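Hey team,

Filing this mostly as a record. A colleague (T.K.) asked me to run one chain through the structure pipeline before their review meeting, and I want the input and output archived in the tracker in case anyone asks later how it was produced. No errors, nothing strange. Just documentation.

Input sequence:
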Amino acid sequence: MRIMISKLTTIADTAFLLGLAICAVSIYLFIPSSHEWAAQSLAFGWIPVLACSSLFLGLLRYKPRFLVKYWRFVLSLASACIVVVGALSFIYGDYGILSKTSFGGQWGQNVAGGHVVVTVFRLALLAVVIPLIFYPKKYARLYLSILKTMSIKLWELSTVIFKVLVIIAKHLSIYVYYLVNSRHRKLLFRRFRKYMLGPNEHEKDIEYDKENSLDFTEVDNEYPNVVPETGIPSELSRTDRIPTDSSKKGSSAKSKWRLPSLNLLSTPEPYLAPKGSLEQMAGEIESALADHSVMVEVKDIKAGPRIVRFGLVPGWIPRRGDASKSDGEVERSRVKVQSILTREKDLALALKTPYLRIEAPVPGEALVGLEVPNPSPSRVLLRQVMDSQAFKAITNKGGLPIALGEDTGGNPVATDLVGLPHMLIAGATGSGKSVCINSIVASLLFTKPPDQLRVLMVDPKRVELTPFNGIPHLIAPVIVDVEKVNPALRAMMREMFLRYKLMEDIGTRNIAGYNAKSKEKMPYLVLIVDELADLMMVGGFEIEQNLVRLAQLGRATGIHLVLATQRPSVNVVTGLLKANIPARVAFAVASQVDSRVILDTVGAEKLLGKGDMLLLNNDSPKSRRVQGTLVYDEEIDRVVDFWNNQKGPPLPEISIEDSEDLEPETDHLDSQMLSQARDLAMTNPYLSTSVLERRLKIGGHKASQIIEALEDEGLVIPH
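Output structure:
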């Protein structure tokens, strides 16, 4: 019965809907006035409206739950219908009613608003409101975040605009002042001419100095008396000063000392290698080796200040016994590198020079390097390397930068003494060893004030380092008496152990960590010895042991050694000393034996002299050829005058004399017994009281007194 009633109800509803449709069609067909009303009201907009209405009524009758479940879909369909009607209102017919009311009719024009701007605004509002109705939580948060971001951006933009307006007003006021004031009118016109026409020659030179300078603090001193050969300007620039680690942003302690200007150094001259002569030399190399059936090709040419490096690529030769075959193919093999090395004298004869050096292979490249003297050599000035990015990077990092020179490719070579951490320099007389030491000292004086770097110099020859006397960096005047070197080394060991004690108390491993945590900064301490052979002749074993002890333990405490000698023999440069000094610089030496003593390999005997060096450090297992920097005596004098004329805050004193505090405790000790204990401490830095009791046959109390005395002298590491 229920099924019958349901079917009858469905038939009645369908008949009712069909009746309504038939009535609407009949009215439209048989009443003429209805045509005009339909065209004026909606025109073609009736199509989407009737379609949506029919769908809505059908769902309302047969699927009411669908309307409730998918109400967002129904609203979206209604919105789309409104958008279509609004879009049809912008299309007009050619004649009739539609030419006045458009395809969307009067209702469509009301929806659109009658203007494109109004329509776009309404549709945008509809696009914003409908998602907010469908998903209120999601889109409410999205709209709020968008409004917040837009407000922040608008505020930032207004701030930038305000700053720009302030800058413009400031500059306008300055220019107005310049125009009114006759004293500055010429300066304004000169700037305007420079902006319109470009700088003249004098202004170009000034701009070059500024571009090649570093960030410095002000200098009050001027040096009007300048040697003409050096080409140094008579006035000092205020922007040409090297930044130290204390001047970097975020540094806790700033130095009160002023650094010297790079304008104290000579300005480098531009240099271009002659390509024609280098290509001619490359052709001579290929032909000279081809005459001996060694086929090579010069692929790379790098011209340095004193050396030109030709990169040779071994060629192909037919294999022996396979010169011809029946099928016309020939098997080939590479030229052996050894065959190139054996033709060194033939190459020297062809190039008319005895100074040849072959490097096979070049580190990091598939080339055989042939180093030949440059036909038009140039000098490498100290400022030229100190202006390089490599030197600036080490300075900004807070290390101890050293300007060494330029390699065979003309690239500046600068290294950090903190990372080496010690350096051994050796070479014959006149090879450039003393100039290298002066360059190292000058590099440190240009980058580090006295409160960050202290130096102890030893110069038995009395002429090389004594010009530096008086600068505030020195712990004491340059030591020229060899007898005073051992007490100075023992004093440095006492300072080293004191620094270890301070770092132990604060809980740090090295000087960098200590300076980061402590308020009282610990300066670097550099020992520079110009002639090591004289010290080894007088002091012998004790000098060697003290230097080895400093080299072993000094790195963490900021103590670094720079040792130089002109007699690189095994008695001077011992194996124990070389083991603790990995960075070595070899200038020209007399024989292969001397080269092996310094570098553990040959090659230094083929150097040109006058600054030509081989550099060996931890960066590469093979030595690197470098042309050393040149610093004039006049430049050193100006740097020394700068520091001597500057008065800064007092510096902590580091004594190099023998400690007098030990005398009351050691008066009752037998001097011979103490001497024997010192000999034992030289071989065992971790000497204990029990060892002394057994070796010297003394009691425990006396052994502890001797150990305390040796600890104060720096010969025994405290337990």
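Quick notes for T.K.: The CA atoms of residues 484 and 657 lie 9 Å apart. Residues 31-134 form one domain.
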